[in-house]
Specification:
The chain is of the alpha+beta class and about 350 residues long. It has 5 helices and 20 strands. The radius of gyration is 31 Å and the shape is flat.
């Protein structure tokens, strides 16, 4: 058998094992699963179906269904691709090339969902008003999952949470949970509201709800940072992987309060607690190897004012021209100060001379 056919059979075997592992993970005897796959990846279709009786295969070619009875089949779970299988030569290649430097060397998104505050939420209200908050759940899993929700606050403004539980199927659109508030309390006070996903994994969001009218605000949030590290000489695959850099960022909006903090890559760690709507400084930390020198932080306040700052670890150092300009500016400033002092002394001496002659 030729080397080409050996490689082809190996890919088929590995692909089939991959699908088997996924189906075994989903293995609930009452469920039926539609499996989308190319015929070319199975070298023994009958054997596979015999071992997985709860699977109906929908054959596809170039990503399009060949034997679908419906244009839009509705499976409980869809397995639609095999991860790319690399050859031995590709596996032996260096992971990071100096020319391929990008945003991050870490994978984001281990959780099966993402929780965030919907932009339709209103975080201010006056006493007597009914206000609605929307907490958005973005389902990432390729199996159906049941979600349970809970929400509480310090001032007792919450009247209902709709719904308190839901089952989200694969590929479902973002789902908004509505929290209804009856606003009571003195103007200028702040209520801390905590919304939690209890199941399938625990995740929580805290927000500051302000009682009163939100004043006009056109000022963007402030972003300041402290950089640590040295990537000047880490410009090869061997040196950049062994050198690290980090940045500590302080973000604040003293006017309307912070609505959202995001980053590219999305791998920041909060040093202080972040309540949506807070007017206090929020400190975040980010670290990476010198193979991935770029980092972008985006901050938005409750009025929609946005500030963005890009940090490049390779451009945190001054070149010779910039250093020379700073030194020259310092010398000029020093000369101006000396000239000012000399002028003052000279004026005083002239004044004394005139006073002496007048006597």
């Amino acid at each position: 058998m030729s080397q080409y056919h050996k490689t082809d059979n190996l890919l088929q075997e590995q692909s089939q094992k991959y699908y088997s592992r996924l189906i075994d993970t989903l293995n609930n005897s009452k469920n039926q699963f539609l499996l989308f796959g190319e015929k070319s990846i199975f070298n023994n279709e009958d054997f596979f179906l015999h071992n997985h009786t709860n699977v109906e295969i929908v054959w596809c070619k170039d990503g399009k269904c060949e034997n679908c009875k419906e244009k839009m089949p509705k499976p409980l779970a869809i397995v639609n691709q095999v991860p790319e299988i690399k050859t031995i030569d590709e596996q032996n290649q260096p992971k990071n090339k100096a020319s391929d430097k990008s945003w991050s060397d870490e994978i984001d998104g281990a959780k099966s969902f993402r929780l965030e505050l919907s932009p339709y939420s209103i975080l201010t209200g006056i006493s007597g008003e009914t206000v609605k908050l929307y907490f958005r759940v973005i389902h990432r899993s390729w199996i159906p999952l049941e979600y349970n929700f809970h929400c509480y606050d310090q001032m007792g403004l919450i009247r209902s949470v709709l719904p308190t539980s839901v089952i989200l199927p694969p590929n479902s659109p973002p789902f908004d949970v509505m929290v209804i508030l009856e606003v009571t309390g003195p103007e200028g006070s702040t209520d801390e509201i905590t919304f939690s996903v209890l199941q399938p994994e625990f995740e929580t969001i805290k927000i500051n709800f302000y009682i009163g009218k939100l004043t006009g605000d056109t000022t963007r949030p402030t972003i300041d940072y402290i950089f640590n590290g040295d990537c000047r000489f880490a410009d090869t695959p061997h040196t950049c992987a062994s050198e690290k850099w980090n940045v500590e960022v302080t973000i604040q909006d003293e006017n309307s309060g912070l609505a959202m903090i995001s980053s590219i890559p999305n791998n920041i760690r909060f040093r202080s607690e972040f309540n949506i709507g807070t007017k206090l400084p929020v400190i975040i930390h980010y670290t990476a190897t010198c193979c991935f020198p770029k980092f972008e932080i985006i901050a938005t306040d409750l009025r929609g004012n946005t500030n963005k700052k890009t940090i490049d670890a390779e451009k945190q150092y001054l070149n010779i021209a910039e250093i020379a300009l700073i030194v020259l500016s310092a010398i000029v400033l020093l000369l101006l100060i000396l000239f000012l002092i000399w002028s003052i002394i000279r004026c005083q001496r002239r004044k004394r001379s005139r006073d002496f002659l007048s006597r």
